[in-house]
Amino acid sequence: MTNAASQLPTVKLIINGEFVESSSREWRDIINPATQEVIARVPFATPDEINAAVSAAKEAFTTWRKAPIGTRARIFLKYQQLIRENMKELAAILTAEQGKTLPDAEGDIFRGLEVVEHAANIGNLQMGELANNVAGGVDTYTLLQPIGVCAGITPFNFPAMIPLWMFPMAIACGNTFVLKPSEQDPMVTMRLVELALQAGIPPGVLNVIHGGEQAVNAICDHPDIKAISFVGSTKVGTHVYHRGTLAGKRVQCMMGAKNHAVILPDANKQQTINSLVGATFGAAGQRCMAVSVALLVGDAKDWIADLVSTAKTLKVNAGTEPGTDVGPVISCAAYDRVATMIERGIAEGAKLELDGRNPKVPGYEKGNFIGPTIFSGVKPGMTIYDQEIFGPVLCLATVATLQEGIAMINANPNGNGTAIFTQSGAAARVFQEEIDIGQVGINVPIPVPVPLFSFTGSRASKLGDLGPYGKQVITFYTQTKTITQRWFDDSTLSAGVNTTIALK
């Protein structure tokens, strides 16, 4: 380790309620994407450290699983209060390591906070069912019981929201948890975990490890981990799902996307354009629910010039600068990938309506900045259409009818989200019924549901049957136990042996 590196802050592990300095020899720099400044170093946890985290969670489960519902709920009531009190600090950490604008960083945290609030309502969510007197003197009822040690693997693009989708619901259900944040921006996640411990989560109930492929594989293989929740790329998510399920675990994987918006010519023009521009270029396009393709139906093709002019008004700058709309992408590698995709779009025949490459950002010349970029004439088979760009790039395609647009979307393998913009209720109803996508917006560009409902991405965007929050996740994080009981008194004693299967 160089002297300069030794002076940098180090991200700790959390094992059994304690912040632990890793003994790993493998470390990664955490880099501010707007400046290239190294702001901290994160370890890749050793196998022994990973095993210690899982062991702590396994031991804590023996007592936490018996914690009363009220005890669990009150912890998350306290936790949501602490998140609110520390919102500005959390947003500043997030922006420094991830690059989002400060308002968008607060939005990232807030959408996670909604799930924390939902977890505080666990008393109404983790309820079984009862059928009285299903046979003579026989009652049947169900219990929703925790399953054990659960694990979460989270991505770089939402380092606050996605961890908060995972561990609060798992822990509120009575499980214990091992979290592996993204190694690119783990600092805000660590601060959120610190606040969770401060809110009263007992030692061992929530543990944190760091790492890359080896840590992911260790989570998939460890026999004491019963369930895995993953959000990230399709490549890694597919690996996690198959490796984890082969090891006998429950696995849910939210993965890549190619989200389309259908624009009918009767839509409110300026509102639609504003919605598209915001949904495409916010967070520098690094959202799994970003609108990356707009299908212009009929005369809506005439809106391209207005789309471009609106996109040009967005301010590209560091996330800490007031008025910034588009911050940097996460890394130099991400910058190179997006720039390469833009070059391929040009080479494959799409028309570059707005070129966001090499924007001038005074004072941040080393930042990973790409401005809003728009292609028209995009068709299936082009790289920019077929692959997820994960950057501030909007692909425009023209179709003659709504039905042609629906067919084009349904032919795409991904199914995370879609939207339609129209003033026609009839068209919207046809769209919501015929589209084969898990989450549908009607004049809403990013239809991510509130936690009262479940995140319902589909097809190649999702592996596993149950979503990461809402009612579905209660099923994911609990085991249904069905109990059939009969109590006898002297008046109901059996007259003899009954060898039939029926209850009488």
Automatic annotation (TrEMBL):
Belongs to the aldehyde dehydrogenase family. Keywords: NAD, Oxidoreductase. It comes from Solimicrobium silvestre. SUPFAM superfamilies: ALDH-like. Transmembrane segments: none annotated. It is an enzyme of class 1 (oxidoreductase). GO terms for molecular function: methylmalonate-semialdehyde dehydrogenase (acylating, NAD) activity. Its EC number is 1.2.1.27. This is methylmalonate-semialdehyde dehydrogenase (CoA acylating). InterPro entries: Ald_DH/histidinol_DH (IPR016161), Ald_DH_C (IPR016163), Ald_DH_CS_CYS (IPR016160), Ald_DH_N (IPR016162), Aldehyde_DH_dom (IPR015590), MeMal-semiAld_DH (IPR010061). The lineage of its organism: Bacteria, Pseudomonadati, Pseudomonadota, Betaproteobacteria, Burkholderiales. Residues 19-483 form the Aldehyde dehydrogenase domain. GO terms for biological process: L-valine catabolic process; thymine catabolic process. Gene3D superfamilies: Aldehyde Dehydrogenase, Chain A, domain 1, Aldehyde Dehydrogenase, Chain A, domain 2.
